[in-house]
Amino acid sequence: xxxxxxxxxxxxxxxxxxxxxxxxxxxxxxxxxxxxxxxxxxxxxxxxxxxxxxxxxxxxxxxxxxxxxxxxxxxxxxxxxxxxxxxxxxxxxxxxxxxxxxxxxxxxxxxxxxxxxxxxxxxxxxxxxxxxxxxxxxxxxxxxxxxxxxxxxxxxxxxxxxxxxxxxxxxxxxxxxxxxxxxxxxxxxxxxxxxxxxxxxxxxxxxxxxxxxxxxxxxxxxxxxxxxxxxxxxxxxxxxxxxxxxxxxxxxxxxxxxxxxxxxxxxxxxxxxxxxxxxxxxxxxxxxxxxxxxxxxxxxxxxxxxxxxxxxxxxxxxxxxxxxxxxxxxxxxxxxxxxxxxxxxxxxxxxxxxxxxxxxxxxxxxxxxxxxxxxxxxxx
Length: 380
Hints:
By secondary structure, the chain is an alpha+beta fold. The protein has ten helices and 20 strands. The protein has an eight-stranded mixed β-sheet with strand order 6-7-5-15-16-17-14-18, sandwiched between helices. It has a six-stranded mixed β-sheet with strand order 9-2-1-13-20-19, covered by helices on one side. A three-stranded antiparallel β-sheet has the order 3-8-4.
């Protein structure tokens, strides 16, 4: 193992591998990534490899919209931008709301339109005309983002980023657990692993559900908790077309994304109890299947009675305000977080890899990320 590097990245999810790639390709800095899972299991270990990988743009802050737009363009042109193509499907995004969220939705439609995104507001009458498969009872409006897309296989970009980062000189150490962090004079000095100590100038914490565990190594509370999230694939009698939009019911907190073979990929944003990311049930519960399909069938009657194909669970890495923690810590020079994305991080992986590279290289970023700092939980 190398004994000294410029940048040590902990965690090989979408943010870790994207950042490693950009540092290795675009700078003269030496970078190494440390992943505690082995080379054959890391893709399924955290949040990224089990993501629904939807790339939408509807946010209430400029930073997130800009990041989603830039990341979308990278995903769309992955061969040019990174080195190999990915299976990227433009199918649009359709999200419905009821009364309480109607005004907020209208504002978000106007906001994303101002960034050049092809999004429109649809009334219940327009919804029924354009999407007759949808039950619009009690729906008061919808956003239809025609530019929204998804990465078909969320593990594909992870593999490509890793391969290309290594090609440009990045070191990847799988099956290597970080056990501690040495500091001196309010600066990071080295990473301790179960295979040795490595001196560093920067550490980037991209550990997702394990973020708080890394925080304990520097005696800092990083308020990120791991929560199990379940998904189920179903096959209806009338196959669910690949060109159907990704559908989200913001009232019931359920969504459907199309898959090949007429399969509907169904999930719910159920923020359940905290779990141990090293020991959680990666299967799916019968009660969840029953509940999520009941809610989805209310909106999409053709999915009622669909045959269960498979189900699995992944992890959300949640903060209390559902926004991530990103940036260099004020109290510890050289320690940078990029964690706590609360289920919507995958779509930002490409752009935040660039922003983290910029932060290390120049001390500033091309998009303003200041409000994502850890300090906000103290100051409110």
